[in-house]
Amino acid sequence: MKRFVFGFLFLFLICQNANAVVLSKINVSGNQRMDAESIRILSEVKVGDNIGSEKANDIAKKLQASGYFSSVNVHLQGNVLVIKVTESPVVNMVTVEGNDKIDTEDLKKEIKTKERVSYDISVIGGDVQRMLTLYMRKGFFGTKINPKKIDLDNNRVNVVFEISEGHPTYISDIDFENNKKFSDRTLRGEILSREHAWWRFMTQFDVYDEDRIQYDQQMLHQFYMRNGFLDFRVTDAKGEFTPDREYYSVKFTVDEGNQYKIGDVKIENPFPDVPESELYDVLKISKKDIYNIDNVEASINALRSAVAEHGYAFINVEPIPNKHDDTRIVDINFKIQKTNRIYINSINLLGNVRTFDNVIEHHLPMREGDPFSLQTIETGRQNLMHTRYFKDVQMVPTRLADANMMNLDVKVEEQPTGELSGGFGWSSINGFMVDAGITESNFMGRGQIVQLRGSIAQYQRQALFSFTEPFLFNRELSGGFDISYTQYKYSKLGGYGYDRDSFSISGRLGWRLTDHWTQTVRLSATFDQNYDLQLGGWQKANLYALGTNLRYYNLDTNFQQNTHTGVVGNFGVSYTGFGGTNTFMRYSADITGMVKFLDDRWQLRSSWNLGYLQSLQSDNYIPRVYRYFLGGESLRGFEVAGVGSRNWYFQTYSLGGLWKANGSTQLNFPVFIPDEYQVKGFIFADYGILGKPPKREYEYQNRANIIDEDWRTSVGFGIYWNTPMGPMNFSWGWPMKLNKYDQEERFLLSFETQF
């Protein structure tokens, strides 16, 4: 039997090689770009090889698989191997058309077909599938992609992927399974994905996106970790088509685990000169609190800052938890890494193209050679942001090879510091009004402030020029001057009976008392011509005043007016006299407080403005033009000077008051429009009272004037829109308490822009 099998195999091999020949030549034809020798090398056969028909077929398959040829024919002619090829076209250009929802660059990352390589239909098919997958992750499940080959000369082709994106697939509902501690509604508020609603057309968060679902799982994990659930996990997250295949239904399956509270909190402090009591005081967690990962992270940062204040920079704080499953308590030990005290080697200013170095240096509280202090560095950053010269300021410390030294890079991103502002509106007194101004707060990069402003109305003209040097004589002194001109033609209205031409010039000097307190001294001269129907002619007045103002400023560095937090206050007193035509004292106090809440998207503002005039003349008289008035921006819903004591005959004629008290409470809040459009809504309540005029105004021409010391209130709402051209304010106010002679102004519009 063995002899039979062996004989059969021997006979088979003889038959297989019966047609085999020894190659004497290899002919290559059909090639255009690739030379014949390269094709011979790819075939892995050479002259002198023993080859049959089976070997020829293998060579054809090998050449076909190389991707260089669209067709290959290999056969024997005697002892000559003939290889005939048709080369695949070369891709000249790859383009994408019809895409709108996904950027072309993102799509091309999925395309393996490249320019200057051979066209391969199998690779094209993979390209289409990968792009479709990308569209499905973005919620566009009806997308169609048609690849087109456009033939060119010289065996070249262009590849065009024609895309029909179709409509997005929205999320109809988002449900949660196994959640017991928190409701579905609460958890929906913690993730980014949203159920479809018509008002979400600008966000696309209600379009199904697999990548967003992955991110939602992380957000759920962070939410539960903030609420003490250390063992929380998402066991499943999936989206499925609804039966009508029009929407996606999303379900998260969770395992909440147990809720833990804080047990013992310890700090391993390797620095004898850093008081432990100081470290424990900055912790954001305490015993019996529900574990909150955010508070743990905040405690780590607070410990780093507290230790850094003593000159120990670049320290690492490791929170070591010890979880007790039986009692649901977690002890935390904050281990502080030991390091050396660090000093500043050099301070490098980067990114300032326009702003002079010395201007930046004036605002930095640290100098080279000072001990490193995170608080000092943060103060310097805030000082620079408060200048409003820069869009962003980064303080980047870099440790040197010398373990005790570091460099500090102050990286600034400059922004336009010129401001073009304007406003317009309608007034029952002044008719159509236009206001415009130009301010440069970093003049020629020297930190100087130059302002020019003017307004014009039917019966009013105003102009102002101002200059400020923030570092006078290269010291911590600010100096400047103001020149202004004001003209009123209210006599043409009859009721007001009042004209004024006023020219004023003043100089001022200011200095910093602390990080938050500054003081300014001002000397001014004012030359007035006043015409008052009640007084029966023109009255000239020369006023020379000396005053001082104490300013408190403690705001964060967010300069969008609806998102500030902090307090600003101004307290002033001035003496008018020095031989002028009038002698009196003026006292004033203005204070505004702001607080943010609900993810810093809401803001509550409250302000009070107080003023008091004291005559130092024997008749205790102060001319009307120097008294207080309320209305307009000081009391929305009322005209400028629209409230208070009135002339008995011309009841539109406001007498003004010797004192005032007015305030406002305003709530700024987000609207349904996405945050990136920077639109805020607000509601407000304004209130104020105007004191009596001088006693001689109580009676005039044997007729009693209207003496009014009543409170006024108004409420309203508005919209703040930070447009690409600058912020705009629209407000509507309604007086809640008014007298029949009060002047109302319901609508107010203002805008400003930067250049």
Supply the CATH superfamily name of the largest domain: membrane protein fhac: a member of the omp85/tpsb transporter family
Oligomer: single chain
The shape, in one word, is: elongated
- The count of β-strands is 37
CATH architecture of the largest domain: Beta Barrel
Helix content: 10-25%
- The first-level CATH class of the largest domain is given as Mainly Beta
The CATH topology annotation of the largest domain reads as: Porin
Question: What structural category arises from helix and sheet content?
Answer: alpha+beta
Provide a count of the helices: 11
The total tally of domains equals: 6
Strand coverage percent: over 45%
Mean pLDDT: 85
Largest sheet: 16 strands, antiparallel, barrel
* First-to-last CA distance: 102 Å
What would a concise description of this structure say?
The protein is α+β, with helices and mostly antiparallel strands and 755 residues long. The protein has 6 domains: 13-87, Ubiquitin-like (UB roll) (Roll); 90-164, membrane protein fhac (Ubiquitin-like (UB roll)), CATH 3.10.20.310; 170-255, membrane protein fhac (Ubiquitin-like (UB roll), Roll), CATH 3.10.20; 261-336, Roll (Ubiquitin-like (UB roll)); 344-401; 510-754, Porin (Beta Barrel), CATH 2.40.160. The protein has 11 helices and 37 strands.
